[in-house]
Amino acid sequence: MAKEDLLSLTIEEIEAIVEKVGEKKYRGKQIFQWVQKGIKDFESMTNISNTLKQALHEYSFITNVEIEKKVISQIDGTRKYLFLLEDGNIIEGVLMQYKHGVTACISCQVGCQMGCSFCASTVGGLVRNLRAGEMIDQILLMQQDFGERISNIVIMGSGEPLHNYSEVINFLKIVNNENGLNIGNRHITLSTCGLVPEIKKLAELQIPINLAISLHAPSDEIRQKMMPIAKKYSLTDLINACAYYLKKNNRRITFEYALVKDINDKEIHAQQLSQLLKGLLCHVNLIPINMVDETQYKKSTQEKIKRFQSVLMKQGIEATIRREMGADIDAACGQLRNNYINNT
Protein backbone atom coordinates (compact mmCIF):
# COMPACT_ATOMS: atom_id res chain seq x y z
CA MET A 1 0.00 0.00 0.00
CA ALA A 2 1.32 3.44 -0.97
CA LYS A 3 2.26 5.70 1.92
CA GLU A 4 0.35 8.96 2.32
CA ASP A 5 1.89 12.41 2.72
CA LEU A 6 0.70 13.75 6.09
CA LEU A 7 1.32 17.34 5.01
CA SER A 8 -1.20 16.82 2.19
CA LEU A 9 -3.96 15.55 4.50
CA THR A 10 -6.72 17.34 6.40
CA ILE A 11 -7.24 16.72 10.10
CA GLU A 12 -10.14 14.41 9.26
CA GLU A 13 -7.98 12.33 6.93
CA ILE A 14 -5.21 11.99 9.54
CA GLU A 15 -7.82 11.07 12.16
CA ALA A 16 -8.97 8.26 9.88
CA ILE A 17 -5.41 6.92 9.72
CA VAL A 18 -4.89 6.94 13.51
CA GLU A 19 -8.27 5.28 14.12
CA LYS A 20 -7.35 2.65 11.54
CA VAL A 21 -4.31 1.67 13.64
CA GLY A 22 -6.38 1.55 16.85
CA GLU A 23 -5.49 4.97 18.31
CA LYS A 24 -7.81 7.64 19.69
CA LYS A 25 -9.21 10.11 17.14
CA TYR A 26 -7.77 13.20 18.89
CA ARG A 27 -4.26 11.98 18.04
CA GLY A 28 -4.96 13.00 14.46
CA LYS A 29 -5.30 16.63 15.51
CA GLN A 30 -2.00 16.45 17.41
CA ILE A 31 -0.19 15.01 14.40
CA PHE A 32 -1.75 17.62 12.10
CA GLN A 33 -0.50 20.39 14.41
CA TRP A 34 3.03 18.97 14.37
CA VAL A 35 3.34 18.70 10.59
CA GLN A 36 1.80 22.15 10.10
CA LYS A 37 4.59 23.55 12.30
CA GLY A 38 7.12 22.13 9.86
CA ILE A 39 8.14 19.07 11.87
CA LYS A 40 9.57 16.49 9.48
CA ASP A 41 10.28 13.49 11.70
CA PHE A 42 7.91 11.47 13.86
CA GLU A 43 10.42 11.24 16.72
CA SER A 44 10.04 14.97 17.38
CA MET A 45 6.31 14.56 18.06
CA THR A 46 6.67 14.44 21.82
CA ASN A 47 3.02 13.88 22.79
CA ILE A 48 2.35 10.71 20.78
CA SER A 49 3.36 7.16 21.70
CA ASN A 50 6.18 5.14 20.19
CA THR A 51 3.60 2.64 18.98
CA LEU A 52 1.81 5.35 17.00
CA LYS A 53 5.11 6.69 15.69
CA GLN A 54 5.91 3.22 14.37
CA ALA A 55 2.51 3.01 12.71
CA LEU A 56 3.03 6.41 11.10
CA HIS A 57 6.34 5.18 9.66
CA GLU A 58 4.46 2.26 8.15
CA TYR A 59 1.53 4.16 6.67
CA SER A 60 2.81 7.66 5.94
CA PHE A 61 5.60 10.14 5.27
CA ILE A 62 6.02 13.92 5.50
CA THR A 63 6.86 16.02 2.45
CA ASN A 64 10.29 17.59 2.77
CA VAL A 65 10.91 20.41 0.32
CA GLU A 66 14.26 22.22 0.57
CA ILE A 67 15.44 25.71 -0.34
CA GLU A 68 17.88 25.25 -3.21
CA LYS A 69 18.54 28.94 -3.83
CA LYS A 70 17.38 32.29 -2.50
CA VAL A 71 17.77 35.73 -4.07
CA ILE A 72 16.84 38.97 -2.28
CA SER A 73 15.96 42.13 -4.18
CA GLN A 74 18.09 45.13 -3.33
CA ILE A 75 15.21 47.34 -4.47
CA ASP A 76 12.31 46.25 -2.28
CA GLY A 77 13.39 43.20 -0.26
CA THR A 78 11.35 40.75 -2.33
CA ARG A 79 12.69 37.21 -1.89
CA LYS A 80 12.71 34.70 -4.74
CA TYR A 81 13.17 31.05 -3.84
CA LEU A 82 14.03 27.98 -5.81
CA PHE A 83 12.70 24.91 -4.01
CA LEU A 84 14.10 21.42 -4.51
CA LEU A 85 11.48 18.67 -4.41
CA GLU A 86 12.24 15.16 -3.24
CA ASP A 87 12.17 13.83 -6.82
CA GLY A 88 14.77 16.38 -7.94
CA ASN A 89 12.35 18.78 -9.62
CA ILE A 90 12.67 22.54 -9.10
CA ILE A 91 9.84 24.99 -8.40
CA GLU A 92 9.64 28.67 -7.45
CA GLY A 93 8.15 30.78 -4.72
CA VAL A 94 8.21 34.50 -3.99
CA LEU A 95 7.85 36.37 -0.70
CA MET A 96 6.78 40.02 -0.89
CA GLN A 97 6.47 42.61 1.86
CA TYR A 98 3.58 45.04 1.79
CA LYS A 99 2.15 47.48 4.32
CA HIS A 100 -0.77 45.10 4.86
CA GLY A 101 1.47 42.10 5.62
CA VAL A 102 3.70 39.44 4.11
CA THR A 103 2.51 37.70 0.94
CA ALA A 104 3.73 34.36 -0.36
CA CYS A 105 3.32 33.54 -4.04
CA ILE A 106 3.48 29.77 -4.48
CA SER A 107 3.64 27.26 -7.32
CA CYS A 108 1.01 24.55 -7.79
CA GLN A 109 2.70 22.59 -10.59
CA VAL A 110 6.19 21.82 -11.84
CA GLY A 111 6.08 23.81 -15.05
CA CYS A 112 2.82 24.55 -16.87
CA GLN A 113 1.12 23.31 -20.02
CA MET A 114 -1.15 26.30 -20.63
CA GLY A 115 1.30 27.77 -23.15
CA CYS A 116 0.66 31.49 -22.58
CA SER A 117 3.07 33.16 -24.97
CA PHE A 118 4.23 35.91 -22.58
CA CYS A 119 4.95 33.67 -19.56
CA ALA A 120 8.24 32.00 -18.66
CA SER A 121 6.50 29.31 -16.56
CA THR A 122 5.25 27.50 -19.63
CA VAL A 123 8.68 27.13 -21.27
CA GLY A 124 9.40 23.40 -21.14
CA GLY A 125 5.77 22.45 -20.51
CA LEU A 126 4.23 20.62 -17.56
CA VAL A 127 6.27 18.07 -15.62
CA ARG A 128 3.72 17.16 -12.92
CA ASN A 129 1.18 18.44 -10.42
CA LEU A 130 2.21 19.32 -6.87
CA ARG A 131 0.63 17.68 -3.87
CA ALA A 132 -1.11 19.92 -1.35
CA GLY A 133 1.76 19.24 1.06
CA GLU A 134 4.33 20.50 -1.44
CA MET A 135 2.35 23.73 -1.66
CA ILE A 136 2.08 23.99 2.14
CA ASP A 137 5.81 23.36 2.54
CA GLN A 138 6.69 26.33 0.33
CA ILE A 139 4.85 28.58 2.79
CA LEU A 140 6.41 26.91 5.84
CA LEU A 141 9.91 27.32 4.41
CA MET A 142 9.45 30.96 3.42
CA GLN A 143 7.91 31.77 6.79
CA GLN A 144 10.76 30.07 8.65
CA ASP A 145 13.41 31.72 6.49
CA PHE A 146 11.90 35.21 6.76
CA GLY A 147 11.07 34.97 10.45
CA GLU A 148 7.61 36.54 10.19
CA ARG A 149 4.14 35.08 9.79
CA ILE A 150 2.84 34.93 6.23
CA SER A 151 -0.59 36.55 6.18
CA ASN A 152 -1.52 36.36 2.49
CA ILE A 153 -1.16 33.73 -0.22
CA VAL A 154 -1.39 34.00 -3.97
CA ILE A 155 -1.48 30.79 -5.99
CA MET A 156 0.02 32.56 -8.92
CA GLY A 157 3.47 31.04 -9.33
CA SER A 158 4.31 28.33 -11.83
CA GLY A 159 1.33 26.29 -12.92
CA GLU A 160 -2.42 26.59 -13.47
CA PRO A 161 -4.24 26.01 -10.15
CA LEU A 162 -7.48 24.80 -11.72
CA HIS A 163 -5.53 22.26 -13.79
CA ASN A 164 -4.50 20.75 -10.44
CA TYR A 165 -8.00 21.21 -9.04
CA SER A 166 -8.30 18.49 -6.38
CA GLU A 167 -4.92 19.14 -4.74
CA VAL A 168 -5.47 22.91 -4.75
CA ILE A 169 -8.85 22.44 -3.04
CA ASN A 170 -7.17 20.19 -0.45
CA PHE A 171 -4.53 22.87 0.03
CA LEU A 172 -7.22 25.49 0.69
CA LYS A 173 -8.86 23.28 3.32
CA ILE A 174 -5.55 22.61 5.07
CA VAL A 175 -4.07 26.12 5.00
CA ASN A 176 -7.33 27.61 6.31
CA ASN A 177 -7.53 25.29 9.34
CA GLU A 178 -7.17 27.02 12.71
CA ASN A 179 -4.88 24.23 13.95
CA GLY A 180 -2.41 24.88 11.17
CA LEU A 181 -1.31 27.98 9.28
CA ASN A 182 -4.78 29.46 9.85
CA ILE A 183 -4.69 31.77 6.84
CA GLY A 184 -8.21 33.00 6.13
CA ASN A 185 -9.81 32.40 2.74
CA ARG A 186 -10.20 36.13 2.20
CA HIS A 187 -6.40 36.39 2.36
CA ILE A 188 -5.92 33.83 -0.42
CA THR A 189 -5.96 34.61 -4.14
CA LEU A 190 -6.23 31.94 -6.82
CA SER A 191 -5.20 32.97 -10.31
CA THR A 192 -6.42 31.07 -13.38
CA CYS A 193 -6.00 31.57 -17.11
CA GLY A 194 -9.67 30.67 -17.52
CA LEU A 195 -10.62 26.98 -17.27
CA VAL A 196 -14.36 27.54 -17.55
CA PRO A 197 -15.73 24.23 -16.16
CA GLU A 198 -13.41 24.42 -13.14
CA ILE A 199 -14.38 28.05 -12.44
CA LYS A 200 -17.98 26.86 -12.22
CA LYS A 201 -17.00 23.92 -9.99
CA LEU A 202 -15.10 26.29 -7.72
CA ALA A 203 -18.12 28.61 -7.62
CA GLU A 204 -20.29 25.76 -6.35
CA LEU A 205 -17.97 25.22 -3.36
CA GLN A 206 -18.57 28.82 -2.24
CA ILE A 207 -15.12 29.16 -0.69
CA PRO A 208 -14.67 32.92 -0.08
CA ILE A 209 -11.22 33.20 -1.67
CA ASN A 210 -10.25 35.94 -4.11
CA LEU A 211 -10.47 34.84 -7.74
CA ALA A 212 -8.11 36.39 -10.30
CA ILE A 213 -8.57 35.80 -14.02
CA SER A 214 -5.61 36.13 -16.39
CA LEU A 215 -7.45 37.95 -19.14
CA HIS A 216 -4.80 39.95 -21.02
CA ALA A 217 -6.93 40.73 -24.07
CA PRO A 218 -10.25 42.45 -24.88
CA SER A 219 -11.11 40.22 -27.86
CA ASP A 220 -10.96 36.55 -28.82
CA GLU A 221 -8.72 37.36 -31.76
CA ILE A 222 -5.98 38.87 -29.61
CA ARG A 223 -6.42 36.45 -26.72
CA GLN A 224 -6.08 33.39 -28.95
CA LYS A 225 -2.70 34.64 -30.15
CA MET A 226 -1.49 35.11 -26.57
CA MET A 227 -3.20 32.24 -24.73
CA PRO A 228 -3.95 28.81 -26.26
CA ILE A 229 -6.74 28.23 -23.69
CA ALA A 230 -8.72 30.96 -25.51
CA LYS A 231 -9.13 28.61 -28.49
CA LYS A 232 -11.05 26.23 -26.22
CA TYR A 233 -13.07 28.77 -24.23
CA SER A 234 -14.20 32.04 -25.79
CA LEU A 235 -14.38 35.31 -23.88
CA THR A 236 -18.16 34.89 -23.83
CA ASP A 237 -17.73 31.49 -22.14
CA LEU A 238 -15.26 32.97 -19.66
CA ILE A 239 -17.29 36.06 -18.77
CA ASN A 240 -20.41 33.89 -18.32
CA ALA A 241 -18.45 31.64 -15.94
CA CYS A 242 -17.29 34.72 -14.03
CA ALA A 243 -20.87 35.97 -13.78
CA TYR A 244 -21.86 32.57 -12.38
CA TYR A 245 -19.01 32.75 -9.87
CA LEU A 246 -20.19 36.20 -8.77
CA LYS A 247 -23.76 34.93 -8.42
CA LYS A 248 -22.60 32.13 -6.13
CA ASN A 249 -20.00 34.04 -4.11
CA ASN A 250 -20.58 37.78 -4.47
CA ARG A 251 -16.81 38.27 -4.25
CA ARG A 252 -15.21 40.86 -6.51
CA ILE A 253 -13.17 39.28 -9.30
CA THR A 254 -9.79 40.65 -10.33
CA PHE A 255 -8.92 40.59 -14.02
CA GLU A 256 -5.18 40.49 -14.65
CA TYR A 257 -4.17 42.36 -17.80
CA ALA A 258 -0.52 42.30 -18.88
CA LEU A 259 0.11 45.16 -21.28
CA VAL A 260 2.20 44.29 -24.33
CA LYS A 261 3.49 47.04 -26.60
CA ASP A 262 1.34 47.47 -29.71
CA ILE A 263 -0.52 44.20 -29.08
CA ASN A 264 -3.17 44.95 -26.44
CA ASP A 265 -2.28 48.37 -25.01
CA LYS A 266 -4.09 50.84 -27.27
CA GLU A 267 -6.99 53.06 -26.26
CA ILE A 268 -9.35 51.07 -28.47
CA HIS A 269 -8.39 47.97 -26.47
CA ALA A 270 -9.20 49.76 -23.23
CA GLN A 271 -12.60 50.73 -24.62
CA GLN A 272 -13.27 47.14 -25.73
CA LEU A 273 -12.25 45.86 -22.30
CA SER A 274 -14.60 48.32 -20.62
CA GLN A 275 -17.51 47.00 -22.67
CA LEU A 276 -16.54 43.39 -21.98
CA LEU A 277 -16.52 43.87 -18.20
CA LYS A 278 -19.45 46.26 -17.97
CA GLY A 279 -21.80 45.36 -15.13
CA LEU A 280 -19.46 42.88 -13.44
CA LEU A 281 -18.30 43.30 -9.83
CA CYS A 282 -14.64 43.47 -10.74
CA HIS A 283 -11.29 45.20 -10.64
CA VAL A 284 -8.62 45.30 -13.35
CA ASN A 285 -4.99 44.85 -12.38
CA LEU A 286 -2.82 46.35 -15.12
CA ILE A 287 0.56 44.64 -15.29
CA PRO A 288 3.67 46.02 -17.01
CA ILE A 289 4.69 42.81 -18.77
CA ASN A 290 7.92 41.13 -17.69
CA MET A 291 10.48 40.73 -20.45
CA VAL A 292 10.96 37.02 -21.22
CA ASP A 293 13.93 35.98 -23.37
CA GLU A 294 11.90 33.33 -25.19
CA THR A 295 9.34 35.84 -26.53
CA GLN A 296 9.49 38.95 -28.69
CA TYR A 297 7.01 40.89 -26.55
CA LYS A 298 8.00 44.34 -25.35
CA LYS A 299 6.73 46.27 -22.35
CA SER A 300 4.30 49.15 -22.85
CA THR A 301 5.46 52.62 -21.90
CA GLN A 302 4.35 54.01 -18.56
CA GLU A 303 2.48 56.76 -20.41
CA LYS A 304 0.47 54.20 -22.39
CA ILE A 305 -0.32 52.18 -19.28
CA LYS A 306 -1.62 55.25 -17.47
CA ARG A 307 -3.71 56.24 -20.48
CA PHE A 308 -5.16 52.73 -20.61
CA GLN A 309 -6.04 52.98 -16.91
CA SER A 310 -7.66 56.37 -17.45
CA VAL A 311 -9.97 55.02 -20.17
CA LEU A 312 -11.12 52.17 -17.90
CA MET A 313 -11.71 54.49 -14.96
CA LYS A 314 -13.78 56.89 -17.07
CA GLN A 315 -15.97 53.94 -18.08
CA GLY A 316 -16.53 53.03 -14.42
CA ILE A 317 -14.10 50.09 -14.33
CA GLU A 318 -11.83 50.23 -11.29
CA ALA A 319 -8.22 49.73 -12.39
CA THR A 320 -4.83 49.85 -10.70
CA ILE A 321 -1.30 49.47 -12.02
CA ARG A 322 0.62 46.69 -10.32
CA ARG A 323 3.79 47.79 -8.59
CA GLU A 324 6.73 45.81 -9.98
CA MET A 325 8.33 43.72 -7.25
CA GLY A 326 11.77 42.13 -7.38
CA ALA A 327 12.58 43.42 -10.86
CA ASP A 328 16.30 42.92 -10.22
CA ILE A 329 16.00 39.22 -9.25
CA ASP A 330 13.91 37.67 -12.06
CA ALA A 331 10.87 37.61 -9.76
CA ALA A 332 8.36 36.94 -12.53
CA CYS A 333 6.92 33.43 -12.80
CA GLY A 334 9.35 30.91 -14.25
CA GLN A 335 12.28 33.24 -14.90
CA LEU A 336 14.63 32.13 -12.13
CA ARG A 337 13.74 28.44 -12.58
CA ASN A 338 14.44 28.57 -16.31
CA ASN A 339 17.77 30.32 -15.77
CA TYR A 340 18.72 27.73 -13.13
CA ILE A 341 17.76 24.74 -15.28
CA ASN A 342 19.52 26.15 -18.35
CA ASN A 343 22.74 26.69 -16.41
CA THR A 344 22.96 23.39 -14.50
TrEMBL record:
Binding site for [4Fe-4S] cluster: C112, C116, C119
Catalytic activity entry: adenosine(37) in tRNA + 2 reduced [2Fe-2S]-[ferredoxin] + 2 S-adenosyl-L-methionine = 2-methyladenosine(37) in tRNA + 5'-deoxyadenosine + L-methionine + 2 oxidized [2Fe-2S]-[ferredoxin] + S-adenosyl-L-homocysteine; adenosine(2503) in 23S rRNA + 2 reduced [2Fe-2S]-[ferredoxin] + 2 S-adenosyl-L-methionine = 2-methyladenosine(2503) in 23S rRNA + 5'-deoxyadenosine + L-methionine + 2 oxidized [2Fe-2S]-[ferredoxin] + S-adenosyl-L-homocysteine
EC number: 2.1.1.192
Gene3D superfamilies: 1.10.150.530, Aldolase class I
GO BP annotations listed: rRNA base methylation; tRNA methylation
Gene Ontology molecular function: 4 iron, 4 sulfur cluster binding; metal ion binding; rRNA (adenine(2503)-C2-)-methyltransferase activity; rRNA binding; tRNA (adenine(37)-C2)-methyltransferase activity; tRNA binding
Cofactor comment text: Binds 1 [4Fe-4S] cluster. The cluster is coordinated with 3 cysteines and an exchangeable S-adenosyl-L-methionine.
Annotated Radical SAM core domain residues: 98-328
Keywords: 4Fe-4S, Cytoplasm, Disulfide bond, Iron, Iron-sulfur, Metal-binding, Methyltransferase, rRNA processing, S-adenosyl-L-methionine, Transferase, tRNA processing
GO cellular component entries: cytoplasm
Positions contributing to S-adenosyl-L-methionine binding: G159, E160, S191, S214, L215, H216, N290
Compartments where located: Cytoplasm
Catalytic residue positions: E92, C333
Cofactor: [4Fe-4S] cluster
Protein's job: Specifically methylates position 2 of adenine 2503 in 23S rRNA and position 2 of adenine 37 in tRNAs.
Protein family according to the UniProt entry: Belongs to the radical SAM superfamily. RlmN family.
Other notes: Reaction proceeds by a ping-pong mechanism involving intermediate methylation of a conserved cysteine residue.
NCBIfam families linked: rRNA_mod_RlmN
Protein name: Probable dual-specificity RNA methyltransferase RlmN
Encoding gene (name): rlmN
